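YM 10:42: Anion permease sequence, as discussed on the call
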Amino acid sequence: MVWGLKRSQWVAVLLIPLLSALLLLTPAADLFTDTQRLSALLIMAGMVLFATSALPEFVSALVVLVLAMLLSLAPAEVVFSGLTSTACWLIVSGLVIGIAISETGLAQRVSTRFTRYLESSYARLITGIVLMGVLLGFVMPSSVGRVMLFIPIALAIAENCGFAQGSKGQQGVVLAAAFGCHLPTFAILPANIPNMIMIGSAENIHGWTPLFAEYLLLHFPVLGALKAALLIMVILKLYPDTPVRQAPLHSNGGFSGRELRLLVIMLGTLGFWLTDSIHHTSAAWIGLAAATLLLLPGVGMVSARSFNDKVNVSSILVVAGLLGIASLINYSQISQVVGSRVLDWLPLAPGQDAINFFALSLAAVATGVVATLAGVPATLTPLAEQISQMTGFSLEAVLMTQVFGFSTVVFTYQSVPLMMAMPLAGVPIAHAGRLCLILAALTVLILLPLDYLWWQLLGWI
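YM 10:58: structure's back
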């Protein structure tokens, strides 16, 4: 190693000055104020550090948070908003629930039933995990809840298949579970928050609400099924391994008292999550209430020692740093500045269906990078009528192009469920970051043209 630097650190040392020069020396720099340019530089540097793993992830998070405060780029309540966000407390509650599922043996019990059907080959294992995640999207309309329940089970399946902690097989199973229950499910109408934001804003602003069946038919074949297939192929390529049964799997009898108590708490938590439209209590506080019950002596099944040993504070700092980046983007109004110029930059014109479709889809992806996934419908829905007039597309078609954008995750900070899944599984977030970049590239290169052809076949454009 030259000068004691690792390859990832050399990549960061080269990328940060190069991207800084591109930001400062191109005409795009004129769009921003001095403070916005400084914020953009810090955000870009933080994203490079996270993407390359040049520093330990929690150190990268602290670098971003500390520099944002020292440079007075935003108030403390903005910079450290990740620590007060519902996402942070969802992760804490998810970690506690995960410990309980593992320590009571419930994860092992459920995983035993599935392992015998999946362990014959690694390809079958990864495919089965992804398909289980997709199916959960039809019955559980919360990607956060799916991650919290599915990750402990996936870890137990990995253990049953002989994959050690940190092995490629274990990482592959975790990524299949996390991505499988999240990315393809954007093609299922009520399965994720951005979908619901798009529905609500489209109904309030434009008076249109898509039907479940038409939404599924338009998006699931390409952005659901084919994206799941791409996910499986990429994981098999990046994380090859071979399942090895460690010991015969036997049924361990009926449920124990601890397992039954955990089932009652989990079913109650799930029930409150599914009925949040009635009681309007955040999923984070419901999850935190469940975690508190699990920690109470005599009621729960997570000891103080287990909590201290297994709840990783560094993972919470990583999420706080990533959410801090997202908050800084919003506070500095970088997304608004870029969004106000998007329509001027896009080559939109009536009769150019292919160019219009590709431009709108890619604009939605870019919006997700600067405003996170939930920011895509919030930013683009109010512009739909104007875009419809510029392109000749129907209002409904313009609104539906958003789905390609908020279902394409370029960086992990865009997606709270993915940021939650990695700490829950104890897998470095850099693995999710690499998979996001590869899937995003393949989605644009392969699925975007196929999506256009599918829309044409259905008569949407």
